[in-house]
Fold each of these.
Amino acid sequence: MFAHNFILGGVTVAFDASHQISQDYEPLAGAAVLRLSSGSAVKQTAWDGKLRTTLSGSGRLPPGLDGLDYSASLSLSCMAPRSLWAAATTGLSMPASRRTDWAPHGYAIVNGRQVVTPISIVVNAVTFTAVAGASGYVCAYYPILTVFASAPRLRFDGRGPVSGWEIIAEEV
């Protein structure tokens, strides 16, 4: 399941600009694997936990994002879900910065399969309805990220009314 649109800097990208759309997430970290004189690996991390995301799509129209100020940070309401795992417990804490127009949803993992299970949310605490035989629970939610984004890269098909675009954004 995915949200049917994304919002960047307060602008909702319309369906006519996103008949085909995708979003991917890439973790960012200031980390390196170093080798000791014995050859053993040691991971050195200065910071961690940020994301780079790429949104791309095509439709009959361009996305309508040319008027945004790309020199400033922007709010990005994502269309692709992220998920959190809770092993052997029916509760977890979810990020506060998430979409409210697309509700989080829960799954129990039973015999290696996801089974939909109801969840309740109080502020940022998620509680799953217990499922017999569950080895863990997953909560999917739609994040809102504060990002620095580049202006969309646009492409046009000269043989028909198709506009393609790509936006790359990194979490502040």
Amino acid sequence: MSPLTPWHYLLLGSLGIVWVLGTVLALRSNSKLSIFATITLIAALVGAMFWNAINENVYHVEISNLKDERYYQSEQILIKGVVRNTGQYPVSNVTAVVRMTNARSGTEAKASQFAQPGAFAELFEGDDPEFKRQNVVEEHLIADQLNPGRSKTFRILMDYPPHFGKASYAIEAKVN
């Protein structure tokens, strides 16, 4: 978890005040348990919503200088790059979400457009041993602690599916 910011403390303080006021209101009413449960549930839901909104808007990281190498002997791909903290607050646990897709080229792509399984078919692949997944999504931890303005190089080694003709990939940084 990344360090807390003043926005997190402001949210915790305001939710605490609302919860205490709701508890006082519940103690003065006839239906104590109902009001107490409602106030607690509302504070928890609002807190979870705003906590995620604060995390998305406060912690900013970007990935650049991507390079890849494919190792044919071991059927793996090595992706190198640089992750940089562009926000004002330190971040912890930067995760890269790698989405690799089988990118067909030329006439093969047009001929096999309907023959290749899509995202809907991947949901219902079942126990079919002949099924070949066309999309791979993996998450990798690329930085433990990153202070504002600092950058760090990373390397991701992942399996390259042997049935992929040519892979295209997209990498997105996510702060946990």
Amino acid sequence: MVSINDINHTILAGNFTNEQLNSIGMAVQFARNQLSRKTKASLRLGDNVNFYSSKMGRDYTGEVIKIARKYVTVRSPGNGLWRVPANMLTVV
């Protein structure tokens, strides 16, 4: 398997056309969508999950109260409700 460093180095050092770079971007987006679907499929209402908020600079833990198409609503005790993309969640 190729390491992430090898992939990054190849992209940065390569002489790719705009079309090739768009293709790479679409592949990354597809992989993100697959990860999100897989994560959402493993979640159930009431599950405890953990996520990191880059805006607040800390980790939060809470309970899944709603699973929507794009976001999962998490109730964090003392921190309110959060709408979080599924791919940012890990089950505790």
